[in-house]
Amino acid sequence: MAKQLNFLTLGNEMKGIKTTEGFDVLTSYSDPITDEDVELDVFMTLDHPLIQFEDGHGNITLKFDIQKARYDVIGHIRTTTLPSGMVLSFKTTLSNVTGTVDSSQSKGGFAGKGAKAAPANETVPINPDEKDISQVDLIGTTDESRKAVKGKTFMLDALKQYFQENAELKYFVASVSNQYDPQLGSHSLQPRSFCFNTLKGKTKDDESALCMWISVKEGTNKDQSSKGNFRGGLKFSGKLIASDVDIEKYDLEYDSGGLYPSHKTHHVDGIKFSPSEPETTISFDSGLNSKSHKINYTSDRQRVNWEWRESGVHRPVMISSGTTNREFVWTAKGSWKDKKTAEHPNLLRFDWTSDKEWTIKKSAEDVGWWEKIFGGSTAIPEHLRNLKVPSPNVKLEMNTLDYFLTRNLLYPGKHIFNADDPSSASTDKGLALPRDLILTGETKIN
After folding, report:
1. For the residues of 192-221, what is the DSSP string, one character each?
2. What is the tens place of the pLDDT at every residue in 196-250?
3. Which residues share a beta bridge with 318?
């Protein structure tokens, strides 16, 4: 409590430059309450806030229209009602916002006014354990409220402390009916939960992003955080459904004339295998708009025996034989394509371009010295060296992917998200698979 001056001392303090010139009356209050700490109870009814993103680092400003407000002086019968037209504003950082799809609202259009309400005491933190209210302001929007806020700065510290310690705010972003008429033959991504987070740069000058992560129906719904060194991408296996490869045996028999006529026979075993064995590897690279998505099939090793035999009059039979190993390799490369239509503007499909022929890897089996004595050879006959086999008759088609419902979370009923061309050569936008699928695009609002 400040020291109070008696009347004589006060009069002397006001002499000279501290005069009452220009004023009529000097009043000195001796009521101790003017200099005592008082406790206030502040009551405010706030409207839904306007969220304004200040930068790319998750810094936001929340502005609440104050519907009505008053404060009571505890211990005194004194109530002060604040005028209308006041706005409560505070700055904070958006770290995490989570939400789930309410299954009770999955039919019958959008949830909203009149929808099932949460329990009265249910609170959900915006930034659990990370609340950081950097600044709180009272803003007047009318002449009366602008005058009122000038004398109410004593409330700001209390408001900041309250929101710092107790503010737990739940936002109803939007809801959407999961009832949707997808295009025939497409796979519709149905969201079941979502969350936001900000990817921050190292400095304020670095670009950042506000990301929306969506868990979809039939997804893994597991922790997707990577531990240690991790390279993104997907790789899985499956069976290549194609007809058997059946190459008939090769037999050739003929006589050669000349001074020393001979009879020659050539034989190469046939080859038959099923492309369903072993399993086929399908890999999706993590790069942005990557063209290295592949289907890769390599057959089991096929052992092909061959024999050349030549006989003539007054000549010993000459035999040459060996075994050639063959591996049949077939690949297809794929890329994402935009397949949108007027009725379904959020369609993607994976298109494949496959080899026109089998790539055949060949090698000869080694033979021992004793086999060489009896005609063993590591040569590869011309018939096997020049063998060409058409590619398997495989119809590579994947259902289109309809992601409308995931976009619809933020913009119920509106087709306003236009994805960037996922097959472009751009490195700034498109589609990537660093761990989960990321798709860039533009929102267009009329």
Report:
1. EEEEEEEE--SSTTS--EEEEEEEETTS--
2. 666 666 776 777 666 777 777 765 555 444 343 333 344 444 455 567 788 888 8
3. 310
| Structure tokens belonging to residue 108 | 């019958």
Dihedral class, residue 218 (left if φ above 0, else alpha if ψ from -120 to 50, else beta):
left
CB neighbours of 74 closer than 8 A, spacing ≥ 6?
Answer: 38, 39, 40, 41
pLDDT in tens, 353-404: 888 888 888 888 888 877 777 777 888 888 888 888 888 777 777 778 887 7
Alpha-carbon distance of 432 to 287, in angstroms, equals: 6
Cα 108 from Cα 373, distance rounded (Å): 86
Is the bond into 412 cis (omega within 30 degrees of 0)? no
* Cα separations in angstroms, 386 against 254, 268, 382: 21, 13, 6
Task: For residues 216 and 194, give the distance between their C-alpha atoms in angstroms, rounded to a whole number.
Answer: 9
Q: What is the pLDDT of residues 123-156, one digit of tens each?
A: 433 333 444 566 778 888 888 888 888 767 677 7
pLDDT tens profile 52-104:
767 656 677 888 888 888 888 887 778 888 888 888 888 876 655 555 555 44
Element of type H or E holding 62: strand 59-73
Select from 54, 59, 66, 94 the least CA-distant residue to 155: 66
Nearest to 219 by CA among 400, 411, 437, 408: 437
- CA 116/CA 107 separation, integer angstroms: 13
Mapped onto helix, strand or coil, the DSSP state of residue 51 is strand
345 vs 416: CA distance, rounded Å: 9
Rounded-to-integer distance, Cα 246 and Cα 337, Å: 35
| Distance between CA atoms of residues 377 and 323, nearest Å | 8
Beta bridge partners of 34: none
CA distances in angstroms from 153 to 41, 123, 376, listed in the order given: 15, 28, 101
Distance CA 309, CA 321 (A): 8
